[in-house]
């Protein structure tokens, strides 16, 4: 068993997810199945193959340095659970 | 510092790039706008958006890397760095991780009169996070406000090797780097505005030891003064702990300027697991050799090269050269003035005293002043020709630096023409000698100091406008 419950709980903590005991076990099995799947790669020799950074063999396209399409401030803050006219409001994050 | 210890310091500098728009979005990269007025869907981390890289940002990053002598990677990748904090809407920062665009390079520094270089590990590009406002006076208390204007602004992170050995060297490194980035027009590098931010990794070890000591990361060093104070404090703290037989903890500490000390930052252990992986939204960044050549060809003379040229070709003292090159605008003003009035040391004196004095007193920048190199050159001509005295020239300088009027016009308007007419001066000298018979007797009796007394008397009678050279020459003749 390469993935144990502690590993799942640690990942859940990093991702800010709260999992029930059932979910922890289901995640553990899923993650292990994923590792098994990727394991297939070790059956072939990839020592001469560069690590894949992107699935397409292209370079990233460039954008000209121009300002456009600014959102009105009311739109920018609208989706936040709490906001005023100009700012997103969150619980205080420092003492 | 106590004997027998050696500090080991590495610095990480984040510098904002001077672009119009952000790194991956078309929102404006501007400082001081009203909160949340400079965003697009990309900066807010809305679903379904895609980042597209700003070519100008890459070009500026390339300028910095080439000027610092880095090796440019033809292909580099962007990665996601994950953490949760309200200033980061996507839940990850787009950065470069294992394949940065630039590696190696060096920064020249001058500390304790010695010139040496600090090697760089790498430079990578990344986007900035937003800004949090905790001030109760603004928020009403109990909450924090999030301003995402800065989210997505392009940064380069410049990472030094742990080769810095003192707080003074750290200060010299930062000043040199700031000056280079400004010369390149890559960044305003203004620490007060957060355009130039520094974290320090500090450890200490016994002199001669190979192994590195336990490392502390120091954050919140947001002014040049703080950097040196904080590093000095931290070095001393670490040595004290070790000399008392204690052990250091690897941790992040914050500089508290009010208390004048560093304090551990309370942070969860797991927060440092960033789970980097290549950003699937961004294909690798390709920088063609042609582009490198193009950018290389546009690099200006850098501060250190300028300084050496001022010393070697213009014969300026080391101190003058160092002061003149600090700001590229000032250096260019100096050079243009020397082209018009080819006496480098005289021009240097005027730039250092009068011009820099005026700039610091007026709180303005050189480019805001109506003053041009031809103004200063014209003034120095008047001085050389004896048309004005040095005191009058200083007065004229003050006026023309503020108004942009021509020095000759100011001279006429204020009646500052020097009295050079030898008949007039000779008459004044005779008056002075007659009015001070006892001093004249003492002088003749061998008290040479009184020569200057007579000169001073003539100056007083002309309100400082008599040409001092004419006065001295005539006085020598009269006393002979």
Summed up:
The complex is a heterodimer of chains A (95) and B (480). Chain A has 95 residues and is mostly helical. Chain A has helices at 5-14, 21-39, 73-78; strands spanning 62-63, 88-91.
**What are the segments of chain A in which pLDDT stays under 50 over at least 5 consecutive residues?**
none
Total count of helical runs of at least 4 residues of chain B: 17
The structural class of chain B is alpha+beta
**First-last Cα distance of chain A:** 42 Å
Structural shape of chain B: elongated
Which keywords apply here?
heterodimer, A: 95 residues, mainly alpha, 37% helix, B: 480 residues, Arc Repressor Mutant, subunit A, 3 domains, ten-stranded mixed β-sheet, three-stranded antiparallel β-sheet, 19% strand
How does this model look, in words?
- The complex is a heterodimer of chains A (95) and B (480).
- Chain A is built from three helices and two strands; from the N terminus they run ααβαβ.
- Chain A has 95 residues and is mainly alpha-helical.
- Chain A has a domain at 5-42: Histone, subunit A (Orthogonal Bundle).
- In chain A, helix 1 packs across helix 2.
- The radius of gyration of chain A is 22 Å and the shape is flat.
- The two termini of chain A are 42 Å apart.
- In chain B, strands 1, 3, 7, 8, 9, 12, 13, 14, 15 and 16 form a ten-stranded mixed beta sheet that branches. Chain B has a three-stranded antiparallel beta sheet with strand order 6-5-17, with no helix packed on it.
- Chain B has three domains: 5-291, no CATH class; 301-413, no CATH class; 422-479, Arc Repressor Mutant, subunit A (Orthogonal Bundle).
- In chain B, helix 9 (328-340) packs across helix 11 (373-384), helix 11 packs antiparallel against helix 12 (390-403) and helix 16 (450-461) crosses helix 17.
- Chain B has helices at residues 41-44, 55-67, 136-139, 167-183, 224-243, 289-297, 303-312, 318-325, 328-340, 344-362, 373-384, 390-403, 407-413, 422-435, 437-444, 450-461, 468-479, and strands at residues 5-16, 53-54, 71-72, 75-76, 79-82, 92-95, 102-103, 106-111, 114-127, 131-133, 143-147, 154-160, 196-206, 216-219, 251-256, 261-264, 277-278, 285-286.
- Chain B is an alpha+beta fold and 480 residues long.
- Chain A binds chain B through residues 10, 13-14, 16, 52-56, 58-71, 73, 76-77, 79-80, 82, 86-94, and chain B through 19-21, 26-28, 34-41, 44, 46, 52-58, 75, 77-78, 82, 84-86, 99, 132-134, 139, 142-148, 270, 273, 275, 278, 280, 282-286.
- Strand 2 of chain A pairs antiparallel with strand 11 (143-147) of chain B, so a sheet runs across the interface.
